[in-house]
């Protein structure tokens, strides 16, 4: 059995909970290498997503992700809003009108999300951005999709994203606000990589 609209709504709900729970942590991560607003941005954005979901319950997973994309683009300021907006929009487009997502489609949608972030932000792996969480995540998803188990794909993606976020610690930032710090960005974890890992962990949690 694949993933349905119930999963998508649970995913977004768990993401909103994670952004609220980790709001201060994300703010603290954004302090030394940014402007201390990432936790605030993400919490505000996902709270708005929850309001939209209550107003107009989506009928397909793709519709849920499209609503999320539009809301994040309009409610999340800074770099992260358009980046996450593009990610959710590309994933929604990849899903189309399907009501039951299989493992291969899931891996394709995650890949589309990552590609959207790269298209929008032009960051490469190793630039110390959310791409360093997403790229290992989609590689892990692609590597596990063949087994046909959506839960396994999501767990692999979440674990890889968490390791990817940790891997940003020694990196020198080459994109976004943190890049202004040059060498001084080394030794700090990228906040967007951490929020990305939280969102992918929520996706796995929603499938349990
Ligand atoms: P801002 O930097 O405008 O204050 P946020 O603090 O909400 O926005 O988000 C910062 C995060 O956005 C960074 O931690 C990084 O992961 C991500 N980011 C910034 N620029 C880029 C980019 N060009 N490509 C990918 N991710 C980026
Ligand atoms: Mg910031």
From TrEMBL:
InterPro entries referenced in this protein's UniProt entry, alphabetically = DhaK_L_YcgS, DhaL_dom, DhaL_dom_sf, Dihydroxyacetone_Kinase
UniProt-listed Gene3D superfamilies: 1.25.40.340
In the record, biological process GO terms are: glycerol catabolic process
The answer to keyword Kinase applying to this record is: yes
What is a single cellular component term in the Gene Ontology annotation? cytosol
Write one Gene Ontology MF term. Answer: glycerone kinase activity
Q: What keywords would UniProt list here?
A: Kinase, Transferase
- Which SUPFAM superfamilies does the record associate with it? DhaL-like
Tell me the ranges covered by the DhaL domain, including all copies: 6-205
* SMART domains, sorted: Dak2
Q: Which domain of life is it from?
A: Bacteria
Provide an example Pfam family for this protein: Dak2
Residues in a coiled coil are none
User: Which PANTHER family has this protein been placed in?
Assistant: TRIOKINASE/FMN CYCLASE, TRIOKINASE_FMN CYCLASE
Please give the name of this protein.
Dihydroxyacetone kinase DhaL subunit
From which source organism is this entry?
Arthrobacter oryzae
């Amino acid at each position: 059995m694949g993933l349905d609209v119930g999963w998508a709504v649970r995913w977004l709900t768990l993401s909103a909970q994670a952004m609220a729970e980790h709001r201060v942590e994300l703010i603290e991560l954004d302090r030394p290498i940014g402007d201390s607003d990432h936790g605030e941005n993400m919490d505000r954005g996902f709270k708005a997503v929850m309001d939209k979901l209550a107003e107009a319950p989506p009928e397909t997973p793709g519709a849920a992700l499209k609503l999320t994309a539009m809301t994040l683009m309009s409610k999340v300021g800074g770099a992260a809003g358009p980046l996450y907006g593009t990610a959710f929009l590309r994933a929604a487009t990849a899903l189309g009108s399907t009501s039951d997502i299989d493992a291969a489609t899931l891996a394709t949608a995650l890949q589309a999300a990552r590609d959207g972030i790269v298209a929008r932000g032009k960051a490469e792996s190793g630039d110390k951005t959310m791409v360093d969480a997403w790229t290992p995540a989609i590689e892990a998803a692609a590597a596990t999709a063949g087994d046909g188990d959506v839960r396994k794909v999501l767990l692999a993606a979440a674990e890889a994203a968490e390791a990817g976020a940790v891997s940003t610690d020694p990196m020198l930032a080459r994109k976004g606000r943190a890049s202004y710090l040059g060498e001084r960005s080394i030794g700090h974890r990228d906040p967007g990589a951490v929020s990305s890992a939280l969102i992918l962990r929520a996706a796995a949690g929603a499938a349990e």
